[in-house]
Model the fold of this input.
Amino acid sequence: MSYLVLPPHFLSMKKNIFYLLLLLPALFSSPAGGQVSQKTSSQKSNSQSSANQKPKLIVGIVVDQMRYDLLWRFWDQYGNGGFKRLVNEGFLCKNARFNYLLTVTASGHASIYSGATPAIHGIVDNYYFDRNTNKDVYVMSDAKVLTVGNETGASGMSPFRLMSTTITDELKLVSRDSKVFGIALKDRSAMLPAGHFADGAFYFDGITGNWISSTWYMKQLPYWLLQFNQTRQVNNYVSSDWNLLLPRSAYTMCTGDTTLYEHELAGEKLPIFPHHLSKEKISVLPYTPFGNTMTKDLAIEAIKNEKLGKRNATDFLCISFSSTDLVGHWFGPNSLELADCYLRLDKDIENLLNYIDENIGKENCLVFLTADHGGAINPDFGKDHNISGGVMMGDSLLDAANKFVSGFYGEGKWIAAIATQQVYLNQTFIASTKIAGDDVANKVSDFLMQQEGILCVTSPKYNINLCSPTVQQTIMNNFYPERSGDIFYSMKPGWIDWIFKEGTSHGTAFSYDNHVPLIFYGWKIEHGESVEKVVIPDIAPTVSSWLNIAFPSGSTGNPIPFIKLK
Done:
């Protein structure tokens, strides 16, 4: 029975079954009589040599909503030990891109670690419309598990909708001694990288201020995380106001302190510095750079207490820095807040790398850094600088589209939902009429093409395509029939699907959303850079090839050939 389809009542047995499966090859490969053969000294030497070729620890870092150009926009303000150290000592892929349409957090993390696109791994968006229930479904929600670490015992989260294994899964499948952990403010950013077999995935509860997990992985939190929660160390991160790290004159790449392009934080009247924080405003913490600092500190606690990189196995720690995304959404990519968030993240990364140096050794640790997506400029900022763009909201499109189709075929709810550049037709209602689904789809296509912000429309199901080959391919790489809409549309450059005029969003086919940093550092990585194009699903097979383990089950990526090892 595949672990991916184990029924819910087996979840508590998951790891025992997993370890039993690992033992079977060894049992059946033993010589007759049950005696295990002795390795020759030469074989032992070769085995030890092979083991030494692998890193003791892999640290995967995902910076949420980091456009590639942000690596350089703040370059002069970065210190020498964070982003600059990764670039100056590691290997920089300067043309790394996502190759599907809906570049969002869940899909991005799933693609990085599975080596596949949403068309294969099934994580098509953060939410998708379920035709059976006529409701939006959060991709991590799982009524069969509970949260661990808070008092509510509420329904929990799990990676069960991820239809491919991850590189972390494949590592666990061949090395039962390896430890795998995921840490992020967001549950999806912790669990999807950690995969199905992880030792733990920890995420932040903004209501209680605790770090929590899921019964998918464990029955109770590890002692060191319980201690972190019980001592209310979270209060330390909001004990001081958020002020600019550097003098105001250093932020020459930003707009003014308060503009019409920005949101204010909860409880504020204006989005200006200093932003006042307190332990009564824990829920605001993720919208500040101190959410990243807390994530980094917890990652170091995991390395220390779980002895990651200190044992006779390759361990894997997945870290995602989520505050950059929340600050970007709230204030936009040209804001003082986002610039300051990156300068403080730079120091967090420096702190993490220094800890690895002192306790594990750079030569024993493979680090890669990338992002789950980029982000657009604020459309009003664009218009004020003569750049076209706008905001498109699916809810307002839904009513107008239904009225448009009703004008041809009579009153009715022809469309069930419109969300994130996808149209879900109301198949049940259409089947009750004498109107063909193809006719309805074509009318919807006509309606969409009349909208100012829409570039093109395509439908794999109804054989409609008004998109260029490049855009159509990104859509097909996002198309998972059970969860995707019947019709896709791509917005024009500069347009975003967002519920506010302030801040920004992401999730398009264009470079500001799909072009992200990709840096490999440490272990045996030779310094260098390349402008050759790679796609983000290439990351997992690249690391898998270095570990000599299977590629993730759904992987469509390829090992990056031009990164040289020492």
In short: Confidence is low (pLDDT under 50) at residues 1-51. Residues 431 and 437 are 8 Å apart (CA to CA).
